Amino acid sequence: MRTFLTILAAFGLGLSTSAAADPGPPVAPTEIMVGEELPYAYFATPEGEGPFPVIIVLGGSEGGDMGSRSSAPRFIEQGYAVLGLPYYSPGYLPPARQLPDLPEAFDSIPLEKLAIARDWLRARDDVEADAIGLYGVSKGAEFVLAGASRIDGFAAVVAIVPSDVIWEGWGPGAKPGEVSSFSWASEPLPFVPYLGMEEEFAKYAIPGAVVRLRTPQDAGRRANPDRVPAARIRVEDIDEPVLVAGGDADNTWNSGGMAQNIAERRAEAGGLETVAMIYPGAGHALSGTGVQRTEGEFRYDEATLAAQQEIWPATLAFLAEHLKGE
Fold first, then answer.
1. Is-contact 102 122, C-beta < 8 A?
2. What's the whole-model pTM score?
3. Residue 4: is its pLDDT beyond 50?
């Protein structure tokens, strides 16, 4: 079978591994880099002296720091400090966006990165140590839920278009069906494999073809019911309040159904505060602020835009309650 790397090469997506890229444009004048333990992670504060509540922000499978840097200014303007945590940088990104000290493969990414970030923040005088929140989108949502189920010390968790299980990994050197997306204590976590992902991914090269990455994930879950229980993220072990938001029309993965699963498991555990926002007609792009894009070819469909207009203020209210006590 062809690997994802081979398919991406066929698309001409630039598999260069040239010189290191600089981090993206600063998210605030106060931005500093965290250090060698968390390559390309950055920390920024709003105006004032603090101490500040802080949000650790993780993007998704787009990799690099693009996702976290697009979200960070929105939180800073609300009075939060932000720690942006890039954790993956695929080799098919344009050379200017590659972060070569990060893994090119989405293979056994260590959840312990969240503990390192937490401890770095706790050591700072300008951070409220008991007001550290997590905000993850897509694979970043999978990351923060899996991490918070094992790591204490977070006051609230926001998972936008989340997963309720650990999924198969991918990338250079990763054999299909044999690697996990995440690891814990240096051991790959049990995962749900895909079924037909390479065939679906190859449709990107076919003009006019509709690509539904959700299809091989749903197929893999149906074909491997025995692997699902071990791969489930133990969201019932997250003591902190959790907000999840998903769309039933999500073609990237079934974020609506998986958000529902998360809410139900926490309800069954009893007494765990959970906000679940699920939209039948919405897609994967639920991390926006409800403002229609005016640049580029991509525009939000009406259902997804309407969902954003509810999710973003609800997210701010949720974080204000649990990180600021408002």
1. no
2. 0.92
3. no
